[in-house]
Predict the 3D structure of the following.
Amino acid sequence: MEKMDFIVVGAGVVGLAVAAELTRRFEDQSVVLLERHSKFGQDTSSRNSEVMHAGMYYPTGSLKAQLCVEGNPLLYKFCEEYNVPHQRIGKLIIARNDSEIPSIEGIMKQGRANGVKLELIDRDQIAKMEPNITAVAAVYSSATGIIDSHKLMAQLERLALQGGAMLAYKHQVTDVHFQGDGYEVVFTGPDGAEDSLECRWLINCAGLYADLIPARLGIDTTAAGYKIYPVKGEYFTVAAAKSKLIFHLIYPPPLKSLHGLGTHVTKSLDGRARLGPNAHYVDKIEDYDVDAAHGEEFYQAAKTYLPFIEREDLQPDMAGMRPKIQAPDAPVADFVVRHEDDRGLPGLIDLVGIESPGLTCSLSLARKVAGIVAATS
């Protein structure tokens, strides 16, 4: 049986970035990327806000904070070097009334502790930047932007292929066996036939299914904090005429009861505005339908700071899934990026719970994985 140096499982933005980075750092070593879909980025990576985050929300010292603050400028540089469409649009985290000012001041303090450049602006400054919204104060993040995630992934795919990686689409991993000096990865190919490959390093970037590989290798995923609790988020699009009244990303303070950042406004590169996402724990990962009845909730949330919005301005857009590793009512969980050698599984690197800001962190996550390999080899 052929033995590869690296097998990466999952061709979302993180798996693609890891494959590209491994071919760059370890030029003489073989890299195979296995993906169950017929092309890259069919799950979380293509169903999100496409925001380049700055890193102000996450606890100081967490992987989310470190990798987001590192990854943000890396991503801008990558976009400029490879002509990936993006825009440094900026974000306002708003206080809709005086009672919310302490909340946004807390976010600013947290962000500055993480190394994020933030500015507290008053009502007059907001009026110049966003004359059509309701806000008494805001934290302005100039480093926040938007990106064409599909074209980002296409460029990462090109770099991986140019570096010599083999990309195997329609290859679904069904089992994994540790063999003492590496791993046998069993998969079904496009024809449905079962086959396998061996590797020295197994990099788990399986996103919504990232808990399956460690479970197959005997790790108690619940005890380890690896169990995926999928959270569905729906988006509603804003009518074109009303979209033109919004110029930045607009975020109200997140509510502690939510499992995300609440109903905020993002902009696409073509100028459309979108509201969302909401957040609901679900059992069925493949359900990407948007419940049109939820539009009323979006409208009620949005009109508290977008006074020009009418109910008929909102239409169902899309839904995405977040691979959360926090159970309902559990504390917010950090990314897992872990070499499992102390569990008797040398060469296995698990990336689990890579939700937002995973897109922003894709390049810094790839560097971290390559760094683990380099430090161990």
The chain has two domains: 3-47+150-227+331-376, 91-142+229-324. The chain is about 25% helix and 30% strand. The mean pLDDT is 96. The domain at 3-47+150-227+331-376 is CATH 3.50.50.60 (FAD/NAD(P)-binding domain).
